Amino acid sequence: MIFVLIVLTILVFYWYYKTWGKQDFLNSATRGAKGFAKGFARGVMEERIDEFKRRMNYYVIALLAKIAKSDGRVSENEAEMISQILDANAKDEKERAFLKASFNEHKENIHDAFYVAKDFLKEVPLPKNERFNVLRVLVFMALVDADFSSKKREILEQIAKAFDIAKSELDNFIASISNLKSTKKELSLDEAYCILELSNNADLNAVKKQYRALAKKYHPDILNANNVSEEELKIGVEKFQKINEAYEKIKKHLEK
User: Fold this and answer.
1) To the nearest whole percent, how much of the chain has pLDDT over 90?
2) I need a surface site. Which of 43, 80, 131, 254 has the fewest CB within 10 A?
3) Cα Rg for the chain, rounded, in angstroms?
4) Domains along the chain?
């Protein structure tokens, strides 16, 4: 049976060769080879990009874990921010579960942030602007709660040092985000519903769903990935903070 198939294959190629001519036959074969080569190269490139993203996600989550747990516990706001980052970056549920497990592992040792950041750059060599983008996300985590502890600042300084980012650059960025937080006034309930683009009779499930959609859209991690300007980032951060504040305001009101 196999012999018959081989003979038939040879006859088909011979017929094609005789019917269309040598040059057409070679052109067709060349096009097929080029198409295969392009497809193979594209597949290899996509695989490498996926691996790059997986490694980057792992190290960002590891560093976030150390900042979140630096003051002894992971707050509700910090846990929510981690959940948003996982939703935005995990390729599928399997990767999400892996990253969540990595977070839980790394939060138990907050004293090796400098070395983890160094390993990060060995595994994922990033130019300075991309390193600073990662540091921004870490700063947002440190400032997501009202309490910005000295331990969180210490860990951020260790990571900045490993990233070869000057302490003055880190301090300036922390100050700019802190100023945004300190100048805001408390929202009214009507303002909170308006920010979340909801009617005043929306139930808690609708509020949570809308909050997740808006938070994902304006999340600092997403803004950084889109390479927005410094000014656009500040506007986005302010919007993100208002979304968080509005959600907390409405949630407390509905849970009374």
Assistant:
1) 22
2) 43
3) 26
4) 45-181 (1.10.3680.10), 187-253 (1.10.287.110)
